[in-house]
Design a protein that fits this description.
By secondary structure, this protein is of the alpha/beta class. The chain contains nine helices and eight strands. About 40% of the residues lie in helices and about 20% in strands.
């Protein structure tokens, strides 16, 4: 099974740093922008679309179906307070990649029933990106995996040092943000995590 490296990014870290990581290789990149105008969000999404096509990375837009559609992104990721998965599917079409956050078995089942292609579950560890994120237990994560027959990406404070924990529970991929983008050498960090994913036999 190929395990995904899923980068969560915004342009505050610098466009050059994002491209440096894409060059090493990530499977998905989610653009998650907060507190900027819709016009600026769309501009950044279109710029990132150009970059991801160059490196053959799938582009996912956080929350905003309109931005995903207008930027020709591959899909959208939806939280529990966003538009329901079934409505996003109707809006974006059958070929769009639609991910959903699932912190409980019930949320996971509902997302899959509505047509989610993958789930993101966490938070695994403390994260500066979402300081109010509620931790997930290993038992809950395993229960979600058992209940939902789609790929599940572990999210929340993931780093090279701690990523083996969710993988040992059966994660299909790792969603990483600060663990790569705030490191002193993002390219090397990306390569190290990729190697763990590619050689994992758990």
């Amino acid at each position: 099974m190929k395990r995904w490296l899923y980068l969560i990014a915004d342009f505050s870290c610098g466009e050059d740093k994002i491209e440096e990581v894409l060059r090493v290789g990530v499977d998905y990149i989610q653009l998650r922008e907060k507190e900027i105008s819709s016009a600026e969000y769309l501009q950044r999404a279109r710029r990132l679309r150009e970059m991801t096509q160059k490196y053959r990375t799938k582009l996912i837009i956080n929350d905003r179906m309109d931005i995903a559609l207008l930027s020709h992104a591959d899909g959208v990721h939806l939280g529990q307070e966003d538009i329901p998965v079934e409505d996003a599917r109707a809006f974006l079409g059958k070929d769009a990649v639609i991910g959903a956050t699932a912190k409980t078995v019930e949320q996971a089942k509902r997302a899959v029933e509505q047509g989610a292609d993958y789930l993101g579950s966490g938070a695994w560890f403390f994260t500066e990106t979402k300081k109010d994120a509620v931790p997930i237990s290993e038992e809950m994560y395993r229960n979600i995996l058992q209940a939902a027959p789609v790929p599940n990406v572990a999210v929340g404070g993931i780093t090279r040092e701690n990523c083996r924990k969710p993988l040992s529970c059966g994660a299909h991929g790792l969603a990483v943000s600060a663990g790569i983008l705030k490191s002193s050498d993002p390219a090397a960090e990306t390569a190290s995590i990729r190697k763990i994913l590619e050689t994992w036999e758990g």
